Amino acid sequence: MLAHSRNCDMPLYSPSFLEGRKDVVTVTPWLAPVVWEGTFDKDLLDTIYKPKNITVAMTVFAVGKYVQFLKDFLESAESYFMLGYRVHYYVFTDQPEAVPMVTLGSDRRLTKVKIPGSNRWQEITLGRMERIENFIETQLINQADYIFCLDVDTKFYGHWGAETLSRTVAAVHFGFFTRSRDAFTYERRPESQAYIPYGEGDYYYGGAMIAGLVEEVYKVTKTCRMWLEIDKVNSIEAVWQEESHLNKYFLYNKPTKLLSPEYLWHGTYHTDVVKIVRFTQVWKDVSKVRPN
Ligand code: UD2
Question: What is the pLDDT of residues 119-131, one digit of tens each?
Fold first, then answer.
């Protein structure tokens, strides 16, 4: 069994230790790791996490025409997502009969959860917070250790494993990782609970990925759901719906791990910085797939 990583075979002060990645931020100012290719040892992580016998839940919503994304999403997850771990997919959909038959690996299961459709896409995206909160409370809390809540209009292209596990995990949005905080599309109206003033903020996180220990993600979803309700009473909807609230939550409750844009990319091309594409948004014609 592998008991040490190659990087640990050298003193901490060794300049060669730094050779992993010098071109990107690999640790936040609050000392949370930022996961990039070249910063972790997959085999070593498996020796730590596999003996724990963990169960990983994954929620994905496919409502209305978004069911068309499920096949690629699930098939690619079966090729790359948490291989070797017990995985339970929960597909929230208004059309359980349209969920494709995908051959699942051993120790991997899929459950369909029927939910109503909606004539507003915004209600579907922001409604995920309340549904996940309720689902954790009523079912998942004693059934899974970690949970990943992902967008369905996406596809896996590379390894996504135990390096992504932590108490609370956020993904840095591909559109903002080279930009400074005042360019972030945070909610800027003080009337919204998602309000973040200019001059504040760490990173801009994508709403397409929330993860962590089940009990921690429960706190994320419950808090965001409460803020969304207050906004609704005050007739305001944050500029990027639940993503805006998620960014507010993580500003004041720092995630314990950040996933680099390798884990939330757009398209399949590599760059000098994003050396591997692991999970990417797929192109969609919003006028054809959204209900409004
Ligand atoms: C961004 C976020 C998304 C969410 C949204 C909020 C990224 C890459 N994406 O994407 O996570 O925060 O902004 O405005 O960070 N859905 C359906 N049926 C619908 C509409 C949506 O099932 O008719 C579900 C589906 O799982 C989809 C998700 O909601 O993946 C997010 O919707 P989107 O992908 O249309 O949102 P988008 O592209 O604006």
Answer: 999 999 999 999 9
